[in-house]
Design brief:
The complex is a heterodimer of chains A (113) and B (119). Chain A has no helices and twelve strands. Chain A has 113 residues and is mainly β. In chain A, the strands form three sheets. In chain A, strands 2, 5, 6, 10, 11 and 12 form a six-stranded mixed β-sheet that branches. In chain A, a hairpin with a 5-residue loop joins strand 7 and strand 8. The N and C termini of chain A lie far apart (41 Å). Chain B has 119 residues and is mainly β. The radius of gyration of chain B is 14 Å and the shape is elongated. The chains are: A mainly beta (113), B mainly beta (119). Chains A and B meet through strand 5, strand 6 and strand 10 of A and strand 5, strand 9 and strand 10 of B.
Chain lengths: 113, 119
């Protein structure tokens, strides 16, 4: 079975700091990769996705992620975080053949104003 | 489209009672997923359906949990009897058929969740 690892469980940053959240997955075939965000008290929303093509994908609110196939990684980045980015971030993978998703354990980001 | 609709938003019940959570997927979506989110265990997939048929229920914790999808627009997750350790937020999500080629392909859309408290 596939698995998704998010090594940072809790990240605290000050506003304007740069962000990078790690995500590694275990699957050797073709994958679809996602980052979802969950703001406090809300449901998960899609932040960005990668299916194919340019490995650097841009999402909403200034977020981007880079797919590095050789490292089985899909790290999320943002050059300058805002207080409103305080949320939990989930990396997810599916193999494209099935609709089942594998979610990481999530990273809680706390941005201090 | 109104998105994935879950009801109730909040449920408080006593241990031993039956709890039924409801989900209406986005029209046209043929896959439906039930997740449970807790502080301790994070986001867990309980079960998912394709075309109303349960495909993988390996995440269902115990026989006390059951899920049905009688038609393409409705699903239920039932806990009978409920226990305090079932307290969690339960999310439903839906997605388009895997043969779909549009921009929404392979994206799961989540409902607002049901916050369940079992006392």
């Amino acid at each position: 079975a596939q698995s998704v690892s998010q090594h940072n469980h809790h990240v605290i940053l000050s506003e304007a700091a740069s962000l990078e959240l790690g995500c590694n997955y275990s699957y050797g075939g073709t994958v679809n990769l996602f980052w979802y965000v969950q703001y406090p008290g809300q449901h998960l929303q899609l932040l960005l996705k990668y299916f194919s093509g340019d490995p650097l994908v841009k999402g909403i609110k200034g977020f981007e992620a880079e797919f590095i196939k050789s490292k089985f990684s899909f790290n999320l980045r943002k050059p300058s975080v805002q207080w409103s980015d305080t949320a939990e971030y989930f990396c997810a993978v599916n193999d494209g053949n099935f609709n089942k998703f594998y979610f990481g354990s999530g990273t809680k980001l706390n941005v201090k104003p | 489209d109104a998105g994935v609709i879950q009801s109730p938003r909040h449920e408080v019940t006593e241990m031993g009672q039956e709890v039924t959570l409801r989900c209406k997927p986005i029209s046209g979506h043929n896959s439906l997923f039930w997740y449970r989110q807790t502080m301790m265990r994070g986001l867990e997939l309980l079960i998912y359906f394709n075309n109303n048929v349960p495909i993988d229920d390996s995440g269902m914790p115990e026989d006390r949990f059951s899920a049905k999808m009688p038609n393409a627009s409705f699903s239920t997750l039932k806990i009978q009897p409920s226990e305090p350790r079932d307290s969690a937020v339960y999310f439903c999500a839906s997605s388009l058929p895997k043969h779909y080629t549009g921009i929404d392909k392979n994206i799961q859309y989540f409902g607002a969740g049901t916050r369940l408290s079992v006392l």
